[in-house]
Amino acid sequence: MNNELLRELKDLSGQGYGGIFLTERYTQKIDALISSMFNAYSAEGKLVLIATGGYGRSELAPYSDIDIMFLAGDRRNTEMAEQLLHRLWDTGLQISHSFRTPDECVEEALRDIRTRTSLLEARYLAGDHALFDIFREKVYAEIAYKRKKSFVSEKLREMEKRHSDMGDSVFMLEPNVKEGDGGLRDAHTAYWISKIALKTPRITDFSGLLDPYDYKRFISAYDFLLRTRVSLHLEAGRKNDILSFDHHRSIALHLGFRNSMKFTAAERFMRYYYLKSKIIRDTSRKIMGICSNVFFPVVKPHYFRKITDDFSLSGGRVIATKPELFKNNQDKIMEGYNICSRTGKKFSETTQENIKSNLLRITRKVRNSPKSIHHFLEILRGPKVYETLREMHETGVLGRFIPEFGALRLLVVHEPYHLYTVDEHTLQAIRNLENIRGSKYKQHEEFRHIIIELKHFDTLMLSLLFHDIGKAAGRHHEREGYKRLKNIIERFNLDSERRARIEFLVRNHILMSKTALKREVSDMEVVAGFAEAVGDTENLKSIYLITYADMSAVNPRFLSSWKSYLLRELYERTKDYLSGIKEDRDEYLKSLEKLSPTTDMNRLGEFLDEMPARYMVSTTKPKIIEDYTLAEKMKASGFAMRTDTWREGVAEITVSAYDSPGLFSRIVGFLSMKGLNIVNGRIFTGKNGLVIDKISVSNWTDIWWEGLEADLLEGLRGVVIEGRRITISKRAKRAESIFDSFIEIDNEASDEHSLIEILTADRLGLLYDIARVFHQKDIDIVSAIITTEDGLAQDIFYVQSGGKKIHNTVVQELLADVWKTLKE
User: What pLDDT is attached to residue 794?
Assistant: First the structure.
C-alpha cells in the first residue's frame, strides 16, 4: 500500500506540483489508511487517535516519522492500541506513538518542551469526538496558554543551538533542508511561537503578520523547500534531510532545472535553493521578533542624535534624514555604511528598504566615484569590517559596487572539505581574521602581533575579499581572479605598493598552504623558493595571515593543529631566511667560508656584489657556492652548465654565460627542441653582464638517457657561443583554455625596467617564441620569473631596450607581435 502511495507522490512531484500540495496529499492518504484501520476495531471506553508533530501539521514527507497519540479516558484501552500499532507497522510505515490520558498530556507537556510542541499541532484522526473535545478545551488550553514566556525563550534558545550545531549559515554546500539555518524548522519555530503568542491557526496563516509581498515570497519559499525535501526523500529511498553533493544533480533535474550556458543544473538549483532558504530565515526571524515583543517588549529610548547633515541616530539605528537622499546622491549609500561601521549601529528597516529600492542606481559612475571608494576603504580600516560587509552583501550593495564579487553570490563550487558557498566562505574568512585582531586568546597572540606590525590592514582585507573572485569562471581561479582583480584595482586607484601587494596575495593566496602541506618545510631549497616568491617580510606576514583566514573558513575543523604547526614552521623559517640574507656582509661571507674553506672569499664577495639582490633571496648558501664555481668555470671557456636532479622527475639546468642579445631565447629554444618541458625559469643578470639562468624541466626522468647531460652541454654551447640554428620541428597544438590569454606591460612599477606579464595556455616552444619576439624587437630580458602549472604559462619578464625602459612607441608593436605569437 505504502509503495503505491510513494509512486503516486513521485509522479505528482515530477509533474511540478508544489511542496505544500504534495505533503498534504500524502498526509490525506495516510489519514485514510490509519483511520480505516482504527475504525475496524471496537473499543470499550473512550479512545481517540490524534495526529501530532509534523503529521498533525499535515506536512508528511515520504519517509517522515508518522507521530500519533492514543488519547484515552483511562489506561484500560492499551490492548487495542497495541493491536492497531502492530497492524500499522506491518504496512511498513514509520510510526512513532504515545498513549496518554488528558492529565498525562498536560503533565508531560509542561515537563518536556518537545512534547508540548508536538501537542500544539494535534489534529483529530479517528475515535471518540467527545474525548477530543475535552483535549481541545482543557488540555490544549493548558499547554498553549500557560507558561508562554518560558516556552518562547526556550524555543529561541533551541533554535540558536540548532543553528550552531548545523554550521550557523544558510549557505552550506550540503544544507540540512529541515534543521539547518533557513530550513523548514525555522518556519516551524516561528509558527509555534506565533501560535502561543498570537494564536496563529496554521503555518500558512502569516498573512496578518506580513505585507502581501513578503507573505507571497514566504509561501513560495516554504513550498519550494517542502518540495525539495519530498524529492530528497524519494531520491534517497529513506528519511534523509541533508542535501549532499551526490543528490544535487538528480534533484535539480527532477525539479526541472537544466544546464545553462554558464552554470550546470545543479548549480542553478542550489543558487535558487539558497535564495528561498534566506527568505525563510529572514521572514521567520521577523515573525519571531513580532511575537517576542509580546512577552519581551523592547523599550527604545526616544532620542535623536545628529551624526551628519544626512544621517542621524534614532532608537539605536542609523537613519537617513531625507527620503530622497540615496536617489539624488548615490555616494551617500557608501557613506551611510561607513557611518554604520564607525558607530557600530545598523540601518533602520526603513533606511534599508530605501537602499534596496535604489540598488540599480549603483552604476559604473558610482563604482568609479572617489567618494564612494574612499568610504569603502574607510570601512575596511574600521572596527566593524565583517558586520558592515555582511550587511552590504545582504542588501545587495556589495555586489552592485563590486560586480566581480557579486558574481560569487550563492556560487556552489564542489571542492574537498568546503562547507560554504564561495561568497559565504569569503565573508567567514574576513570574520575570522578580524576576530583575531581583537582576540585575547593566547593561541592568537602571534597573529595579533603580526597584524599590529602590518602597514595597511585594509590592504589585507581587500586581498581577502577578492581572493576567490576567479571562481566565478571555474578552474584555475587564482589566475583568473588575478585578471579580474586588475579591473578593480584600476577603479580604486591604489598606489603602486598596495596594488602590488594585493595582486601578489590574490595570485598566490594558496601558495603557502601548498608549500607547507605538500613540501618538506625543513628543506632549505623549499624555504628559498618560497622566500623568492614572497620577496619581503611584509608579503610574508600578509600571506601567513590570509592563509590562516582562508583555511579556517573552509570548515570549522579543517585547520587542524598539525596544519597550523606546518604553516607556522614555514613562516618562521622563511622569516629567518629573509632576515639572514640581510645580515652583515662580512658575517655572511664567514658563514659561506665555513661551508667551503678553500673558496676565495674576496672573489666570491665580488660575485655576490655583481648579482642582483633577489639572487640571494632565492638561493641557498650551498647553491651560491656552486653557482660561483660555475661562473668561474664559465670565465675560462665562455660557457658552463650544471644539472641538479630533484624529486618527481624534475631537474634544474643552470647555465652561466656572458649576456648577449637573444641569449635566453636561444637557451630555452634549444631545450624545447630537445623535448624538455620547461615549468620554471629564473634569470639573474649581473651588473657586468654575467648571467646565471636556472631553468626547471618536469620530464627529465621520462627522456633521460646515458649521456644526456653531455649532449645538452655541447648543444647549448653551440647555440650560445657559436650561434647554431634552432629548429623546433614539431609544434604541439595550442591547448584549449577556459579563458583568453592575458598580456600587460607595466612601465611604472620599476624605475629601470619595463615589466611584461603574460598568462596563456602552454605549448611546446611557447617560451622560445615569446623570447624570440623580444629579441627581434631589440628588447633585452634582464630578469624573468617563468611558471608553468596545470597547462598554463604565467611569465613575468623584466626587460630593457638600449639599457632603458621600453618606449611607448614600441609598446603597441610589441603587444601585437606577442599576441600574434600566443594565438599561433
Answer: 77
239 by Cβ neighbours in 10 Å (0-12 / 13-18 / 19+) ranks as middle
Cβ within 8 Å of residue 268, ≥6 positions away: 252, 257, 258, 259, 260
What pTM was estimated for this model as a whole? 0.71
Percent of the chain surpassing pLDDT 70: 94
**pLDDT tens by residue, 384-407:** 999 999 999 999 999 999 999 998
Look up residue 487 and give its three cell numbers. 579591473
Q: pLDDT tier at 747 (50, 70, 90 boundaries)?
A: confident
| Cα 440 off chain centre by | 27
Q: What is the pLDDT of residue 295?
A: 64
Identify the pLDDT of residue 373. 95
Q: What is the C-alpha to C-alpha distance for residues 62 and 60, in angstroms, rounded to an integer?
A: 6
Cβ neighbours, 10 Å, residue 301: 8
Instruction: Look at residue 415 and give its three-state secondary structure.
Output: coil
* Average pLDDT, integer, range 807-821: 85
Q: Could you write out the DSSP letters of every residue in 43-58?
A: -SS-EEEEE-HHHHTT
Q: Identity (one letter) of the amino acid at 591? A: S
Mean pLDDT of the chain: 86
* pLDDT confidence bin for 381, thresholds 50/70/90: very high
- Measure the CA dihedral 117/121/127/133, to 10°: 90
pLDDT band at 738 (very low <50, low <70, confident <90, very high): very low
Tell me how far apart the terminal alpha carbons of the chain are, to the nearest angstrom: 67
Q: What is the 3-state secondary structure (H, E, C) of 190-242?
A: HHHHHHHHHCCCCCCCHHHCCCHHHHHHHHHHHHHHHHHHHHHHHHHCCCCCE
pLDDT band with cut points at 50, 70 and 90 for residue 735: very low
Do 454 and 538 touch, CB atoms closer than 8 A? yes
- Angle at 491 (CA atoms; ends 488, 495), nearest 5 degrees: 95
Indicate whether 736 pLDDT > 70.
no
Which residues, other chains included, contact 730 with Cβ-Cβ below 8 Å and sequence gap of 6+? 764
Q: Which cell numbers in the block locate residue 188?
A: 516551524
- Contact (CB, 8 A) for 90 and 83: no
The CA distances from residue 367 to 220, 399, 428, 496, 611, in Å, are 34, 11, 24, 20, 44
Give yes or no for a contact between 215 and 206, defined as CB atoms under 8 angstroms apart: yes
Please tell me the total number of residues recorded for the chain in this structure.
824
Q: Give the burial class of 205: count Cβ atoms within 10 A of its Cβ; 0-12 exposed, 13-18 middle, 19 or more buried.
A: middle
3-state SS record for 753-821: CEEEEEEEECCCCHHHHHHHHHHHCCCEEEEEEEEEECCEEEEEEEEEECCECCCHHHHHHHHHHHHHH
CA distances from 486 to 372, 408, 492, 493, 500 (A): 19, 17, 10, 11, 11
Q: Please state, in angstroms and rounded to a whole number, the distance separating the CA atoms of residues 594 and 596.
A: 6
